[in-house]
Specification:
Mean pLDDT: 93
CATH architecture of the largest domain: 3-Layer(aba) Sandwich
Number of strands: 8
Radius of gyration: 22 Å
Number of domains: 2
Low-confidence stretches: none
Helix content: 40-55%
Strand content: 5-15%
Number of helices: 11
Distance between the termini: 34 Å
Strand order of the largest sheet: 3-2-1-4-5-6-7-8
CATH class of the largest domain: Alpha Beta
Largest sheet: 8 strands, mixed
């Protein structure tokens, strides 16, 4: 299998390194296209002879073309690569907001998979939701999923509209976690900890809580009850959260992100 990654930003580089590290493909079968060759600097895992700064016939000789460019750059890119795209090729897009029908129309392509990865994919702990155009069989989707899973875990959805929901939950999700962490860190500093001490307390608490949750079958509510003993400190904090309707506010925030994702997708 020959794979071409178009765009060598953070995600493009991560996909390249993950594919090679997992031995999914070999160095000779991985190609990179980026108009700025300097952008590819540091991606030493890819053979110099497989790095291009302009589209050409080589593009049509690959089995999978991964679109890892910014959504606003796609219109110009599509004009440049469309003459070289072949019907049998699988187009895999990680561009936010660009729908499958748009990709099919602008590239005159037939077989498109759309993915929504998130930031932790850069360290191999990502969450990706993906869907596909009709005509891609289960065996091919399994191959695509194996590719994606080199950067973490994935879920396939039949309905492309669920990609917008995934954007609101897992795509934007890391920022929500950092938002809550930052609030806890600031509170820790106000209570007398140094910044580094507060960061250590919060970072380790989040990591420990997630690992503990993953290694057991208890729900989040059950874990809360285990920590929040009656009349204790945790219960005091949770009562304040409930008084301000924090649970509902978080849900409203995710709905706002979902609605915005739909707007951006047209």
């Amino acid at each position: 299998m020959k794979i071409l990654i178009v765009g060598s930003g953070n995600m493009g580089k991560k996909y390249a390194r993950s594919f090679l590290a997992s031995r999914f493909i070999t160095e000779k079968d991985l190609f990179v296209l980026d108009k700025n060759r300097e952008q590819v600097t540091g991606l030493t895992e890819v053979s110099t002879g497989n790095i291009y700064d302009k589209p050409g016939a080589f593009l049509g000789d690959t089995d999978v073309v991964i679109l890892a460019v910014k959504p606003q750059d796609f219109a110009d890119l599509a004009v440049q690569i469309k003459p070289f795209v072949k019907p049998q090729q699988l187009i895999l897009s990680i561009m936010a907001g660009i729908k499958i029908d748009t990709i099919i129309r602008m590239l005159d392509a037939e077989r498109v998979v759309r993915c929504m990865p998130n930031l932790p994919a850069q360290i191999g702990m990502g969450m990706t939701v993906f869907t596909s155009s009709p005509g891609i069989d289960k065996k091919e989707l399994f191959t695509v999923q194996n590719l994606i899973n080199t950067t973490g875990k994935s879920v396939y959805v039949e309905d492309e509209n669920m990609i917008d929901a995934a954007t609101a939950i897992s795509g934007s999700g890391p920022a929500y976690v950092y938002y809550f962490m930052e609030a806890m860190i600031q509170a820790g500093v106000k209570m007398g900890f140094t910044l580094s001490e507060a960061e250590l307390l919060v970072n380790q608490t989040f990591m420990g809580a997630v690992h503990l949750h993953n290694q057991n079958e208890l729900t989040c509510n059950e874990w809360i009850k285990k920590v929040a003993s009656k009349g204790g400190t945790t219960e005091a904090a949770v009562k304040v959260f409930d008084q301000f309707g924090l649970h509902n506010k978080i849900g409203q925030g995710l709905v706002a992100a979902y609605e915005r994702a739909k707007e951006l997708g047209g």
